[in-house]
Amino acid sequence: MSKLLIVGTVAFDAIETPFGKTDKILGGAATYIGLSASNFNVDSAIVSVVGEDFPQEHLDMLAARNIDISGIEIVEGGKTFFWSGKYHNDMNSRDTLVTELNVLADFNPVVPENYKDSEIVMLGNLHPGVQMSVINQMTEKPKLIVLDTMNFWMDCAWDDLLAVIKKVDVITINDEEARQLSGEYSLVKAAQKIHKMGPEYVVIKKGEHGALIFNDGNIFFAPALPLEEVFDPTGAGDTFAGGFSGYIAKHEDISFESMKNAIIYGSNLASFCVEKFGTQRMESLTKEEIIERLKQFKQLTQFEIEVN
Predict the structure, then answer these.
(1) Pair 293, 271: CB distance under 8 Å
(2) Which of 33, 140, 144, 190 has the most CB atoms around it within 10 Å of its CB?
(3) Distance between CA 141 and CA 143 in Å, rounded?
(4) Is 16 helix (H, G, I), strand (E, B) or coil?
(5) Measured between alpha carbons, how far is 159 from 284 in angstroms, rounded to an integer?
(6) CA 192, CA 207: separation in Å to the nearest integer?
């Protein structure tokens, strides 16, 4: 089994959706990625930063999932990164109400010594310069580096973003970001252009409409499971990334066929994340529920057809 190194935010969120609102709750890309990947029982570690205000119970919960938390720096007297957002009725668009970088503003990631040889590296959404500093700390070239990013970095850190994209094997972005990064409206053309920037695999997330993976002329589509209710989409993309990278770390296979399965597992786990606010659903998720929903995914996508 491969070691999985996860880099990203561990944070507080305050969320409002048509179904209700929360005060400060646990959030952050690395939190969702770690919780999702932990369903594969992989040897994983989180590299992040929090303030003195971050509850020990949250760290204990992550550690109880066999996630190494020695790379989570606690800044004395500091405040944890905080984001607040309000989702529109369609649950696809949202307004950011508050962003407080706090300790994240001066985050200098330090990879624990025993994870500097990790075979799989999952770079959650952060400044591309921070992502690059993690790559530079690895003592051995990882088998697979997965990068998540967003349009904010395309607007304000373009050169740094292109530099780190050259170094990664997989990039995961949504359809809007793929179009901005490539300058192409067609997602097929967008993936071709992004592929030339460095990544061998391009994963384009389409929210409630599933995800696409592109590799050297090969394309695979994984649908999103139609759900009766979506309470909170926050963290769904990170949960997807955690399922994707966790599956790869577990099976140690980086072929396109393995990536197809990883996409399905990522979509499956993301479908649970949206059912409750924040990380609540991912914290209570059972192996039996995951398997049962995988069967639903199989029924959704499997068919027989006569080709004459």
Answers:
(1) yes
(2) 33
(3) 7
(4) strand
(5) 41
(6) 21
Site of tokens 């005060």: 23
Sign of the Cα pseudo-torsion (269, 49, 205, 99, in order): positive
- What are the backbone angles phi and psi of residue 35, rounded to the nearest 5°? -65, -40
Q: Is 134 exposed, middle or buried (0-12, 13-18, 19+ CB in 10 A)?
A: buried
Could you read off the pLDDT tens digit of each residue along the chain, which spans 308 residues?
799 999 999 999 999 999 899 999 999 999 999 999 999 999 999 999 999 999 999 999 999 999 999 999 999 999 999 999 999 988 878 999 999 999 999 999 999 999 999 999 999 999 999 999 999 999 999 999 999 999 999 999 999 999 999 999 999 999 999 999 999 999 999 999 999 999 999 999 988 889 999 999 999 999 888 888 889 999 999 999 999 999 999 999 999 999 999 999 999 999 999 999 999 999 999 999 999 999 998 888 888 888 88
In terms of residues, how long is the chain? 308
Nearest residue to 149 via CA among 165, 175, 133, 125: 125
CB 26 within 8 A of CB 12: yes
| Sign of the torsion formed by the C-alpha atoms of 48, 81, 211 and 16 | positive
Structure tokens at 45: 């570690």
Q: Give φ, ψ of 266 to 5 degrees.
A: -65, -45
Residue pair 300/225 in contact by the 8 Å Cβ criterion: yes
